[in-house]
Write a structure and sequence with these properties.
Blueprint: H1 2-27, E1 31-42, H2 49-66, E2 70-79, E3 82-92, E4 96-107, E5 113-124
């Protein structure tokens, strides 16, 4: 009878341990929907409207991703209490699923065209940085 009780305790412990290892991957994963906006000014430099839209879209995607996944690092080199080099780097990296892209065009007074892209994306928090 004591042996049966010990086997049940070991079995319960093994199941509990398995649940601990499995549950963080399941409970921490989250898909977030964010919106980003980007702007590109199209002037007379031999660019097509499609190229301008793509650049505005890239800017909007970067803005959306920066809301969810940014890592900032910095380094400073100094000698004799004088800063020789100071560098700050911000990196946004992740996997996005684009849900919607909307373009707005506006002609300015100087005949330049403002191309604004607005994107709605889904970002899986397990896939960032």
């Amino acid at each position: 009878m004591l042996l049966e009780f010990a086997k049940k305790i070991i079995h319960i412990g093994a199941v509990a341990l398995l649940a601990v290892f499995i549950s963080p991957g399941i409970t921490l994963a989250e898909v977030i929907t964010v919106e980003g906006s980007g702007l590109y000014i199209l002037d007379e430099h031999n660019e097509t409207m499609e190229q301008a839209k793509e650049k505005a879209r890239e800017d909007a995607l970067r803005a959306a991703l920066e809301q969810v996944a940014v890592t900032i690092t910095g380094a400073t080199d100094e000698a004799n209490q004088v800063i020789l080099h100071d560098e700050i780097v911000a990196v946004a990296a992740g996997v996005m699923k684009v849900q919607k892209v909307k373009y707005d065009l506006k002609v300015a007074d100087d005949d330049m065209v403002e191309v604004r892209a607005t994107v709605t994306v889904e970002v899986d928090t397990d896939e960032v940085n």
